[in-house]
Amino acid sequence: MKKIILISLGLMMLSSLVFAQKYACVDTEYILGKIPNYKSAQEQMEKISAQYQKEVEDGYRNVDEMYKSYQAEKALLTDAMKKKREDEIIAKEKTVKALQQKYFAPDGELAKKREELMKPIQERIFNAIKNFADDGGYATIFDLTNNSSMIYVNSRYDVSDKILEKLGYKQ
Q1: Cα separation of 64 and 47, whole Å?
Q2: What are the tens digits of pLDDT across the range 7-30?
């Protein structure tokens, strides 16, 4: 009988611990929007991306011009000259495709630059969230930005402004 009572008490205490967990949510997109370094990093990324895109587009435009010129002169060229021009066009197109890969591939220069600029900001936010959770005894903090399955969250549980304060930004 004592064992049953002790087990029951133990289960009740365990269940109260499980239900006593604190949860909160943050909107990292909102937080990022309030951080000036993030805004300037975003602007820098947009400029770099536009520059890379222009280089690639110019390259493809050049290939297109080469092809149109070839088509216009094709009737006047010998077979050897045709082959040479076709090879030049193909080589130029491969060069432009390689440049596009170099800039825009998942491990390309644009992704590396984004990592270089954004990672320190993201790490600061993560550390602020972790410190907030540790200080406040939160078991879980959800990110509203990345969790599309979350249908409703009462705004009183959104601790985004408190995370901004931890980062040193006053509202």
Answers
A1: 26
A2: 544 444 444 445 567 888 888 899
In the chain, where the domains are located: 2-166
**What 8-state DSSP symbol labels residue 151?**
-
Between CA 137 and CA 70 the distance in angstroms is 71
What pTM was computed for the model? 0.69
Distance between CA atoms of residues 58 and 136, nearest Å:
55
- Residue 30 tokens read as 């909102």
- H helix or E strand, kind and range, residue 138: strand 138-143
Written as six digits, the tokens of 40 are 């300037």
Q: Please provide the distance, in angstroms rounded to a whole number, between the alpha carbons at the two ends of the chain.
A: 58
Closest CA to 49 of 117, 123, 2: 117
The CA-based dihedral angle spanning residues 168, 34, 39, 101, taken in that order and rounded to the nearest 10 degrees: 100
pLDDT digits (tens, 9 = 90+) for 82-132: 999 999 999 999 999 999 999 999 999 999 999 999 999 999 998 998 888
